[in-house]
Specification:
Layout (H helix, E strand, L loop, with lengths): L54 H14 L1 H21 L4 E9 L19 H12 L2 H10 L6 H4 L6 H6 L12 H15 E5 L5 E8 L2 H59 L3 E2 L13 E2 H32 L6 H4 L2 H20 L8 H55 L1 H36 L5 E5 L12 H24 L8 H8 L3 E6 L7 H6 L4 H14 L9 E6 L6 H14 L4 E5 L7 H5 L7 H6 L4 H4 E3 L5 E4 L8 H6 L1 H10 L5 E5 L8 H8 L3 E6 L5 H13 L4 E9 L1 H4 L1 H7 L3 E2 L2 E3 L7 H20 L1
Parallel strand pairs: 7-14, 8-12, 8-13, 9-11, 9-12, 13-14
Antiparallel strand pairs: 1-3, 1-6, 2-3, 4-5, 10-11, 15-16
Helix pairs in contact: 2-14, 4-7, 4-8, 8-13, 9-12, 11-12, 17-18
Length: 791
């Protein structure tokens, strides 16, 4: 036998795949021209068809389970009824009294500075707070104190209200113990808190306060006491809040008043030191915050207003003068309103009319006419003089307005220089004035709040009222005999049925090899023991005498007898789910056949979750996916391994859809071409469930080996996997039962099978399988051979 790490020997008639001997993956005549051999039938009976029961048989099967375990169900039912009777007899009757109150939402009217502010705009938060207050320990202590519950014997020792029970078991008063009043009050508060139930009425402001007690009188008494204590406590809390707010504001008012006085004194001292005088009564400056106006600013403002008026007067006088110079005398507005000018004009017009009239009689050089003409010219000269006087007056007014404007502008410029000189001093003054204004505003606000608290604290109204007080209950709310019997009886029936089905189908996994043969109809070629200790599967396979290696020797021997020609040319190894040991099994079988001198090709066809390249410590960059996609050469894909005669083809980079690559004819061509270069091709296929890869590979393989994990593989999942494989006419050779633990299989099974294991685990290397099992495999090979000849 070759060592576990020997190199593959050379072969004269068959050469391994390489770049010098390329293998075409294209099938001759198309993909349909190359088909896998027709699958052989399984000799063992196939139980899958028999398990497809109609509905009537399924119902009958369930009924048989119930009948089979009827005594367990009956015992559980009787136990449930007995428990209901016992609970009814031993349960002390509990009475419930209920008080209904109304809680109106009222947000706090006072919000103080520096104290928490509660916002009750959300009704849910407000009412949830009130419910928690009703269940608080403080309220329970108030109820115990206000109702003197510490001295109430009916609270601590309620009278027995069950006549039959009281006759059978007379009540005996407990011996008096020396307890303090404080301890009894604390115990009473605990009883109140434990028996209290708060039930808000949905979509209303009503709340039901219920108290449960063995004594009906105590129940109604405490329910009403809780309501009254809650109302009085609410009033006290509001009053205490107002008192605390007033005390807090008194202290803050004193501090604020002192701060305001200090700010005012600081401002007055600064003004005196810098000679700043403000005129009171002015509005606050929006930029500086000053509440007064300085003298310089006031003078500048008055001068600026006078300058504006002088400028306007000058402009008006200039306009009048310009207009008078360009306007005729008759149209000049000042002359139109001048009585002297108009009188002269009227006299001239009359003289000119007489002159024109006399021209019709006398000549112009007539003495009277010469005199009249001289008079007219004199009147005209007088009118010109009046007009010139008016224009001179307008010019004088313009000159006076111009001088006034110049004088005022000079004064404004001088005052501006003085104001700018004191501007730096006003900056600090504005800061001081801002502090004064802030302190005054805060003081006024706090003073108003303090007065408001004084008014509101004088009148305390309540937003909680009692709607229905609690009445003494006439009957208990529990126990309810019929309800207890129905509840416990139904619970007993349910537990009995559950116990029956639990006993019937407690474990759905396959624990022993017989379960595989029974459920799947497959012969178990080998039982692989579970690894113990910290050693890995790869390290265990390196040792040919390890328990794991000896287990796979049995599988190897069984596969040699699976067909009339020995081991199939290609073998697909799959499982129902991942993690059942198929990859380890593929590596173990491939390396095992390599030790026998066979040239073996191990293909990792699980392109979704490749594992073999990690087990063999090989590269996975180029592999099966690249070959099937036609994007890589053959030589780099096939990698040698450290095992004798074993060549490895990794899965390659994960493709977008592995099923499409496997469904093409290139996979068939690859398996056919591998026959010319390898004695055996072992394909590590993906799991069957949930993927189409494994059924596609099984349909083109000459042999399929199913891996089943002991104590893990579920029967239904394994049966569904077998259905999928049989649906594609897979040639199922058998199963490997991996990770088998004899300790979990039971004493009898372990004793029966321990003879085949070395020291309890692993088949003997010299005797790979028991004689009876080899005989069964021989019979299976003969039957398969005869069936293939018939086909």
């Amino acid at each position: 036998m070759d060592g576990p790490r020997g190199e593959p020997p050379a072969n004269d008639d068959k050469r391994p795949m390489s770049a010098s001997a390329p293998v075409s993956l294209a099938p001759a005549g198309g993909a349909a021209a190359i088909v896998a051999p027709r699958p052989l039938a399984i000799t063992l009976a196939d139980p899958l068809e028999a398990r497809e029961r109609p509905l009537s048989e399924n119902v009958l099967h369930l009924w048989h389970i119930i009948v089979k375990w009827r005594w367990a169900i009956a015992a559980a039912t009787i136990a449930g009824l007995a428990a209901g009777v016992i609970m009814t007899l031993i349960t002390t009757p509990i009475y419930r009294a209920t008080t209904t109150i109304q809680i109106d939402k009222e947000p706090p009217k006072v919000q103080t500075i520096g104290t928490p502010q509660y916002d009750w705009e959300d009704p849910d938060k407000y009412y949830l707070t009130q419910y928690e207050l009703l269940k608080s320990r403080t309220l329970a202590e108030r109820v115990a104190q206000s109702s003197d519950l510490a001295d109430d014997d009916a609270l601590f020792h309620p009278p027995e209200t069950r006549p039959l029970w009281s006759r059978l078991f007379p009540h005996k008063a407990a011996p008096a113990t020396q307890t303090s009043h404080f301890q009894r009050a604390a115990a009473a508060a605990g009883i109140v808190s434990g028996g209290l139930t708060i039930m808000p009425v949905r979509a209303s402001r009503l709340v039901k306060i219920s108290f449960d007690s063995p004594d009906p009188g105590t129940a109604s008494k405490i329910a009403n006491a809780v309501a009254q204590s809650y109302i009085s406590w609410n009033l006290e809390r509001r009053f205490e809040a107002s008192a605390a707010a007033r005390k807090y504001l008194e202290d803050k008012l004193a501090e604020t008043r002192a701060a305001l006085q200090a700010s005012q004194q600081k401002g007055s001292a600064y003004d005196q030191q810098n000679g700043l005088i403000n005129i009171g009564g002015a509005a606050a400056d929006p930029k500086t915050g000053s509440t007064g106006e300085s003298i310089d600013a006031a003078d500048l403002s008055a001068l600026d207003q006078s300058l504006s008026a002088a400028t306007a007067a000058r402009i008006q006088a200039q306009q009048h003068l310009t207009q008078a110079q360009s306007t005729p005398d008759a149209s000049l507005p000042e002359l139109v309103s001048d009585t002297a000018y108009q009188s002269l004009r009227a006299t001239r017009d009359t003289a000119m009319a007489e002159y024109q009239q006399n021209l019709k009689i006398y000549r112009p050089n007539f003495p009277s006419m010469v005199e009249a003409k001289a008079k007219i010219d004199s009147l005209a000269q007088q009118m010109v003089g009046v007009a010139n006087a008016v224009r001179g007056s307008l010019k004088a007014q313009y000159e006076i307005a111009t001088r006034n404007e110049g004088q005022l502008r000079g004064e404004v410029d001088r005052r501006k220089g003085g104001l700018l000189a004191s501007q730096a001093k006003r900056v600090q003054e504005s800061v001081i004035d801002t502090d004064i204004s802030t302190d005054r505003t805060l003081y006024d606000s706090m003073l108003a709040t303090y007065k408001q608290i004084g008014v509101s604290g004088a009148v305390q109204d309540n937003n909680i009222s009692v709607v229905d007080p609690a009445m003494k209950p006439g009957f208990p709310i529990r126990p309810q005999p019929m309800l207890n019997l129905m509840l416990y009886g139904s619970l007993g029936v349910a537990l009995g049925v559950m116990l029956a089905f639990l006993l019937e189908q407690l474990d759905l996994s396959m624990k022993v090899p017989e379960d595989v043969e029974k459920e799947l109809g497959l012969p178990v070629l080998a039982t692989i023991p579970i690894l113990t200790g910290a050693i890995s599967a790869v390290r265990a396979l390196e040792n040919p005498k390890s328990q794991l290696s000896e287990g796979y020797y049995s599988a190897r021997a069984a596969l040699e007898l699976s067909t009339e020609d020995g081991v199939p040319a290609n073998l697909v190894i799959t499982s129902s789910m991942k993690g059942e040991g198929k990859s380890t099994s593929a590596l173990a079988l491939a390396s095992g056949f390599g030790r026998l001198g066979m040239r073996v090709l191990l293909i990792d066809a699980d392109m979704r979750n490749p594992v073999q390249h990690r087990l063999l410590a090989r590269d996975n960059s180029i592999g099966l996916s690249n070959l099937l996609a036609g994007s890589a050469e053959l030589a780099p894909a096939f990698q040698p391994t450290g095992y004798a005669n074993l060549t490895f083809l990794s899965a390659g980079r994960p493709p977008p859809n592995p099923s499409e690559l496997l469904a093409g004819g290139k996979m068939v061509s690859l398996l056919k071409a591998a026959r010319d270069h390898f004695d055996l091709v072992v394909v590590d296929a993906p799991p069957v469930m949930g993927l189409a890869d494994a059924p596609q590979l099984a349909s083109i393989a000459e042999g399929v080996l199913m891996v089943v994990e002991a104590n893990a593989t579920k029967r239904d999942i394994a049966r569904n996997s077998m259905r999928r494989l049989r649906a594609v006419n897979a040639r199922l050779l058998g199963a490997l039962f991996t990770k088998f633990d004899i300790k979990k299989a039971g004493y009898a099974y372990g004793y029966a099978y321990s003879y085949g294991y070395g020291r309890g685990y692993g088949f003997d290397y010299e005797t790979p399988a028991p004689v009876g099992r080899l005989a069964g495999l021989l019979k299976l090979a003969q039957s398969n051979a005869s069936r293939r000849r018939d086909d």
